[in-house]
């Protein structure tokens, strides 16, 4: 350790400093070249930072380094890459530059309109879902009504903008599915961060005589106890406690929800839920192997 802590003498320090001084003297100063308006005759404009602009070819859009901002290198690119344009004058390249700017402006405006049309499509799909209307109402009623209103109040040109909003039945279905997936993803993140939660399960039969299983969760979210709808799944087999548990367990596995974090289960008190041997609650207890699971039966109010 002593050799690392030993202080060097003055002569060795001078020897160490001398090479760095010589290296500093040999360093070349970096020159940042500026764009000259006369370079457009070589088919070049500029892009990037104004203090260190980069030459950009008007014809192909290639960008060169700042060191290439010299007539010889610009001319070399023109003759090697675009020999058919070597005899063109400045006015030709200026027209090409203006055309490129107009195209960029048009593309930018088209993208902005597309984003607004996409946002409007999601808002309409959200309204349809909240009102529980069929998806076809968007293309059979909502869109025609909007187009008629815009035509009478704002003119025929504005109708074209409304027509850009996609509101077909399939589109509305996809929009609702996207929003549903986003809501579920946010809920799962909160549920996993909360760790402990309570589960409420119930099954019913829909108008098609198919068994539907619905689940709610209750957990602490930002110091508040909140209850959220979790899922509604079809029970393909018989509505037994084991089958109900299988459907719920499959959903938990997909969402990476741990049964060990479930501290309470609430059911309607039916035999398939509270059965001692094959009831849903019994299957949950066997899964987590804990017998302090709190169970309760909710009372339906009439």
TrEMBL record:
For this protein, the record's PANTHER family field holds: EPM2A-INTERACTING PROTEIN 1 (PTHR45913), LOW QUALITY PROTEIN: ZINC FINGER BED DOMAIN-CONTAINING PROTEIN 5-LIKE (PTHR45913:SF19)
Q: What is this protein called?
A: Zinc finger BED domain-containing protein 5
UniProt organism field? Nephila pilipes
